[in-house]
Amino acid sequence: MVKVITYGTYDLLHYGHIKLLERAKALGDYLIVGVTADDYDKTRGKINVQQSLMERIEAVRATGLADKIIVEEYEGQKIDDIRRYDVDIFTVGSDWIGKFDYLNEYCKVVYLPRTEGISSSEVRSEQYKLRMGIVGRAAFRTKFVTESKYVNGVEVIGVCVPQKSVESEYGKMFFTENYEELLEKVDAVYIISKPERHYEDVKKALLKGKHVLCESPIALKESECEELYAFAKERGLVLMDAIKTAYSTAYERLVLLAKSGKIGKVVSVDAVCTSLRDGISIAGTDLTQKWNSMCGWAPIALLPVFQILGTDYNKKIITTKFLDKSVNMDAFTKIDFTYDDAVASIKVAKAAKSEGELIVTGTTGYIYVPAPWWKTDYFEVRYENPENNRRFFYQLDGEGIRYEIVSFSKQIENGRNMSVVSNKVSMNIVKIIEDFNSRTDVIEIGERNV
Ligand code: CTP
């Protein structure tokens, strides 16, 4: 019996795939099809595969051409599979010519002519196009535009800026000083205006029937945030927090590990986020144009606290040191939470520097994420006996921003809420910032320049 093996993503199965599978089958008597796992696709740079692994497997099964279907999960697996299943022929389409010649050592390699004029990428981009606009500050804009280019089906077509001086940055995008004009022309907006403007900017967009991706905090008052979510729900629009860390695979996995009891019961979550890059302590900096430490960092630092321990804390104390109280600019802020059976702390600063690590303490071990934990691809689970320690590595591309854009556009397309940051977490982030602004549960320490 001649055994043939072939691999692919098989997203939105099309006739190019079917023709390939037919010809692969015809090369022998028994066909094994390897379907790539979502994580493996991510590491290969295929980030906006539309269908889940199960859906893709089902589609391949439905062709009736595969005698066996396996999942491809890791680099180098092909050699393992060829040996394990005693494969005679490895085959893929001609777009891969030369790439798999190294397998000749294990079996015969056949490149079949690719069917012209069709690919999953084309089907995906024909399906749907999301035209996005951006409103807000420059540094983030450039990153977002760059990352959006990796996501097919999404195009940033316009930017709302205070003055039209930055046109050279973006080639053929249109620029306007008028937010209403931007909203007229797009399906969705990414909002990175100053936090004081978020509520108005989000509301205007929702009123015009546009989906919104907004840097957290979405508003400065819990009641406003609640209103915006209710408003979006009524109108069937997506309103999503843009917290890129939530979309880093390593971060997602460590939250799952913590919740699944791998380190026993979690007793403490401690997160630190600091950066001096914004230069707020440099003399002469216009602080009115800057986000304070709380708005800039607390949404990220609070994420593991609320996602691991929940939002039902009993007590919190916010200790802060202002750089300039008249413009609500905190140099450094620390928040301590007490839960029924756990504690948590966050430390955020734009005018102080510390080790940006995340530690989740459990009764049998702890999770350690080295600095800068908010854009990490790596973490460790450590125990009393170091022999039991485990290291985890997950590739992170574009700091999570491109996965965040994929998630946003998929939610719009599928019309279902798949946001990784729940409305409850989002609203509790806003509540903490509201309390900071109204000096509720706040202790101020010496106000002088640091
Ligand atoms: N294939 C083919 N003809 C096509 C498209 C794909 O023969 N028009 C083959 C590929 O060469 C590969 C298999 O089908 O052996 C699975 O390909 P996959 O990467 O899943 O599909 P693509 O349509 O190429 O996907 P994408 O556009 O995301 O790269």
Strand content: 25-35%
Helix content: 25-40%
Question: In whole angstroms, how far apart are the ends?
Answer: 76 Å
Count up the domains.
3
Could you name the ranges where pLDDT drops below 50 across 5 or more consecutive residues?
none
Number of strands: 20
Q: Which distinct ligands sit in these coordinates?
A: cytidine-5'-triphosphate
Instruction: Specify the number of helices.
Output: 13
Shape: globular
Can you tell me about this structure?
The protein has 450 residues and is an alpha/beta fold. The chain is 32% helix and 26% strand. It has 13 helices and 20 strands. The strands form 3 sheets. Strands 19-18-17-16-12-15-14-13-20 form a 9-stranded mixed β-sheet, with helices on one face. A 6-stranded parallel β-sheet has the order 8-7-6-9-10-11, with helices on both faces. Helix 8 runs parallel beside helix 9 (222-234), helix 9 (222-234) packs antiparallel against helix 13 and helix 11 (293-309) crosses helix 13 (423-437). Cytidine-5'-triphosphate binds at residues 8-11, 16-17, 20, 46, 92-93, 95, 114-115, 118-121.
Strands, helices and their partners?
Elements: E1 3-8, H1 15-26, E2 30-36, H2 38-43, H3 53-62, E3 68-72, H4 77-84, E4 89-93, E5 108-112, H5 120-127, E6 130-136, H6 138-148, E7 154-160, E8 174-176, H7 179-185, E9 188-192, H8 195-207, E10 211-215, H9 222-234, E11 239-242, H10 249-259, E12 266-274, H11 293-309, E13 315-324, E14 329-338, E15 343-349, E16 358-362, E17 365-369, E18 378-383, E19 390-393, H12 401-414, H13 423-437, E20 442-445
Parallel strand pairs: 1-2, 1-4, 2-3, 4-5, 6-7, 6-9, 7-8, 9-10, 10-11, 12-15, 13-20
Antiparallel strand pairs: 12-16, 13-14, 14-15, 16-17, 17-18, 18-19
Bound molecules: cytidine-5'-triphosphate (CTP).
Cytidine-5'-triphosphate binds next to helix 1, strand 4 and helix 5.
